[in-house]
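User: Quick sanity check before I run a bigger batch. Here is a single chain. Can you write out its predicted 3D structure?
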Amino acid sequence: MMLLPQEIIRTKRDGSALSKDEIAGFVDGLITGNFNDAQVGSMAMAIFQKGMNTQEIVELTMAMMNSGEIINWPELDAPIVDKHSTGGVGDKVSFMLAAIVAACGAYVPMISGRGLGHTGGTSDKLESIAGFNVQPSIKQFQMIVKELGIAIISQTDNLAPADKRLYGIRDVTGTVESIPLITASILSKKLAAGLDALVMDVKVGNGAMMQNMEDATALAQSIVNVANGAGVKTQAIITDMNQVLGTSAGNAVEIYETVKYLTGKQREPRLHAIVLALASAMLINTNIAKDESSALAKINHVLNTGQAAEVFSKMIHALGGPSNLLEDPWQAMRKANVITDILAPENGYITQMQTRDIGMAIVGMKGGRTANGQMIDHSVGFDRILPLGTVVNRGDVVARIHAKDEEQMKIASQQYLSALTIGDIVEEIPPAIYQTVS
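Assistant: Done. Predicted structure follows.
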């Protein structure tokens, strides 16, 4: 007997645990359309409000994973590892990390997401680059990973398609922050990619989905428990998102910062610390490095010799982008029409940053989505962002805005300034990295 969508929703709405059959019915409904968009939104809200136990999350993860193709890597002779971030503002870590770890000898088949809520999407950032194809065939994806050790693509139609539909509806129904849904969404895609190991970057703070340490730790533990239970060695590192990560937030501007990082022209200290921590964990968990000191030696070697930059450049070209992104990034990306400095309104220290508001200012400029499937403007965003603790005088540049026109520039510049607190006393600045969950 087919379970009716409204009865499955009712079970979770009333706080009961869903059976394996009920979860299978929901996931099947995502694929067949038996659950319409309103019912998917209602189900997501019921899960958001009532939660799920570990067994339910495992069942949901496995059902979504099995809703599409599972990738195998029979010909690869080294560990297959990936990293996933719960998302933040200015989080371009995936690009540096994948290039570094691949240059150190692992295979990194990275299947990335679109922007979600106020957070930017890795796939959207890559689409800033003219010609770059984030949706190659699985066969082409496997071929590039085998040849270069790395490919960063978007979720394909064949890979966890149930999650793809649910992900888009979560984005526009206020159900992004659900720990069970985040866990199942991340892991259904990652486990379908045939990984040996996974490292999670769980963001916490006012620019993260998880606003406090209790929720971040719960999410980290949920992901670690479910993934390890599915046979993929997984570790989570909880990192700070109480300020923009790096010096840029947007799409094209973050690709530009990535190029500067990989070529050694600019490595913002907090961003660099997080890249080093995650890369070390990936190398140690795959036995490519025996400990942290040997991991750091390998990482510094591939950065200093330019090997990591070369791997990234080859991947961009292999997926349809230019061959000279490192030499001339703006040749392949569209610049905003209006690029203007944002000036400090008073003297003092930058003591706080409402990071989510900065993310939403970018969404407001059409650098993110307010409706499922919307086109975005890759050229807009902020760069030259000053970190917390910086002393500024009135009239100093605190950031630079990239906008479509003068009107958009004025609105978003004011939103950026409203997100900053400039005070007389330097408050304690949160560390870049809090803790590791295994």
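The CA atoms of residues 97 and 279 lie 6 Å apart.

User: Great, the batch can go ahead then.
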